[in-house]
């Protein structure tokens, strides 16, 4: 028997995985994954571009390591969940528009547009995020701003989608997956296939997380085959930007400059080395989700400011020898500037900093993104 | 419920509008990457998944076996997707001497091998249990 090929209708899809009970549960899980991803992503954005009202604690020292780890791993978990959710609602793509009823048609069109925005934005976030962790940028836009803007599109479109679907989703979620039946006997095959589809989706999301979590969870480093970054590198810590890539040449007469309103002080490397040191175990936690702890030795920034006679408890602008590039300077918020664990590090894991790690000295502060841990420091400026 | 839905609608519309406004300066370069996902999924990925599902349904009639093979295929596809940016680095990416610093093809191969080995073990164990149960039933009759 040969049937004529035609565009399918929603009724043609009979698999139990397309039932609203499955869709609503996948939607709930995906909502949790995207919610975690959005919240931690907005946090990371605010840490790097703090609005006036925003403060970020310096303890625990791994706080940013944890929030950014949650960000990338919830994004990874969302990949199979999004695909499972789209598979579950795929028949809805073929719903014929109610062309003869103008009011219902416009409602139908609005819903379709909101879903299109949601799917476009969700794919965009997962794909660009995944390429960013591999530090690959095969596109023309600037990743951080585009990824941040589309995050708001995803969040808004999810809320719109929930607003539209709330009655159906509530009914589907309150229907148990396993029907209680009066007659004992074999399980209803549809019900068991629905549960199998949900179990598989959750299991695959778990496998995806396990396969990548080694970038930030130390005991999974050897387990995760697709962790995009190893924990190794020169002096035990990976490097994102080398001294050569940043075109750094340290002048032989290098002096650290400390500037504050109404004063200025400079000191040579020998003088810096002679100041009292402190050693602290702090993580480098990158925005790409990888993180590695190291033992850093150096002069606490707050002690250095006191030694120079500069005011403390204020934000401090740290400038690198690097002349261009986005991360040639960073501003330590007041809380980090007064924290005794915020170091101008001279040594890493007992060795002198190599050029790629920021020789002659680099900033290392607790609970901050790696891109703000300025290397090759030349100048500290106490702000008002 | 009406009030909740209205609130969700207002906040959702505001957040979407804010995102759109933020994206406006880069909209032209981002557009292909926005549209690409759903087009690829709806035209290529979903029909392919449906086709594989139909073929699998014909080839494997045992429900338990089919469920585990489906799970293995979905997990493999997900791992492959996650590996794409690690395996395929278009030249437009800026040179970075720090990355890639692991053997990703080897990691992916080992990961897939472990996954399928686990599935084969589960299926063999399940088949053995099934046979024992079946033979016990025939014994007791």
Which key features would you list for this structure?
heterodimer, A: about 375 residues, alpha+beta, Fumarate Reductase Cytochrome B subunit, Sulfite Oxidase, Chain A, domain 2, 5-stranded mixed beta sheet, 5-stranded antiparallel beta sheet, 10 strands, elongated, B: about 140 residues, mainly alpha, 2 domains, membrane (chain A)
| Oligomeric state of this protein | heterodimer
Low-pLDDT runs of 5+ residues of chain A are: none
- List low-confidence stretches of chain B: none
Query: How many beta-strand segments of chain A?
Result: 10
How many independent structural domains of chain B? 2
Give me the number of helical elements of chain B.
Answer: 4
What fraction, in percent, of the residue positions of chain A are helical? Answer: 40-55%
H/E order of the elements of chain B?
Answer: HHHH
- Class computed from helices, strands and strand pairing of chain A: alpha+beta
* Average pLDDT metric of chain B: 89
Characterization of the model:
The complex is a heterodimer of chains A (384) and B (141). Chain A contains eight helices and ten strands. With 384 residues, chain A is an alpha+beta fold. The mean pLDDT of chain A is 91. With 141 residues, chain B is mainly α. Chain B folds into two domains: 1-59, no CATH class; 61-88 and 101-141. In chain B, 83% of the residues lie in helices and 0% in strands. Chain B is built from four helices and no strands. In chain B, α3 packs antiparallel against α4 (104-140). Chain B starts with a helix and ends with a helix. The model of chain B has no long low-confidence stretch (mean pLDDT 89).
């Amino acid at each position: 028997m040969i049937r004529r090929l035609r565009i399918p209708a929603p009724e043609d899809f009979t698999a139990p995985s397309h039932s609203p009970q499955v869709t609503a549960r996948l939607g709930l899980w995906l909502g949790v994954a995207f919610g975690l991803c959005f919240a931690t992503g907005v946090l990371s954005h605010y840490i790097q571009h703090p609005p006036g009202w925003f403060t970020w604690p310096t303890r625990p020292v791994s706080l940013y390591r944890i929030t950014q780890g949650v960000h990338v791993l919830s994004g990874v978990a969302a990949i199979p969940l999004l695909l499972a959710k789209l598979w579950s609602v795929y028949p809805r793509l073929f719903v014929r528009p109610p062309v003869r009823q103008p009011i219902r048609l416009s409602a139908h069109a609005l819903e379709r547009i909101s879903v299109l925005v949601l799917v476009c934005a969700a794919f965009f976030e997962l794909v660009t995020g995944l390429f960013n962790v591999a530090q690959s940028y095969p596109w023309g836009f600037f990743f951080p701003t585009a990824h941040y803007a589309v995050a708001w599109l995803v969040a808004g479109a999810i809320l719109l989608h929930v607003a539209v679907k709330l009655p159906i989703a509530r009914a589907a979620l309150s229907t148990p997956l396993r029907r209680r039946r009066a007659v004992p006997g074999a399980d209803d095959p549809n019900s068991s296939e629905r549960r199998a589809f949900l179990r598989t989706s959750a299991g695959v999301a778990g496998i995806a997380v396990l396969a990548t979590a080694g970038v930030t969870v130390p005991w999974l480093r050897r387990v995760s085959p697709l962790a995009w970054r190893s924990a190794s590198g020169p002096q035990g810590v990976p490097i994102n930007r080398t001294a050569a890539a940043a075109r750094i040449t340290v002048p032989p007469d290098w002096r650290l400059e400390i500037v504050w309103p109404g004063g200025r002080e400079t000191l040579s490397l020998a003088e810096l080395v002679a100041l009292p040191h402190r050693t602290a175990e702090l993580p480098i936690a990158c925005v790409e989700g990888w993180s590695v702890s190291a033992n850093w030795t150096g002069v606490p920034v707050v002690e250095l400011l006191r030694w120079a006679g500069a005011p403390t408890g204020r934000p401090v602008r740290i400038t690198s020898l690097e002349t261009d590039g986005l991360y040639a300077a960073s501003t330590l918020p007041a809380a980090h500037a007064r924290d005794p664990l915020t170091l101008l590090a001279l040594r890493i894991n007992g060795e002198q900093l190599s050029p790629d790690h920021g020789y002659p000295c680099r900033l290392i502060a607790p609970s901050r993104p790696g891109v703000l841990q300025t290397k090759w420091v030349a100048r500290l400026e106490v702000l008002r | 419920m009406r009030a909740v839905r209205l609130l969700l609608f207002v906040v959702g519309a505001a957040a979407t509008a804010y995102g759109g406004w933020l994206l406006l300066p880069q909209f032209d370069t981002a557009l292909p990457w926005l549209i690409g996902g759903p087009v690829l999924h709806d035209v290529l990925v979903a029909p392919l998944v449906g086709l594989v599902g139909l073929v699998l349904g014909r080839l494997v009639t045992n429900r338990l076996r089919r469920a585990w093979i489906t799970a293995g295929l979905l997990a493999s596809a997900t791992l492959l997707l996650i590996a794409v940016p690690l395996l395929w680095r278009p030249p437009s990416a800026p040179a970075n001497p720090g990355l890639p610093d692991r053997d990703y093809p080897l990691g992916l191969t080992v990961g897939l091998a472990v996954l399928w080995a686990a599935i084969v073990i589960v299926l063999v164990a399940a088949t053995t249990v099934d046979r024992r149960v079946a033979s016990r039933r025939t014994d007791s009759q």
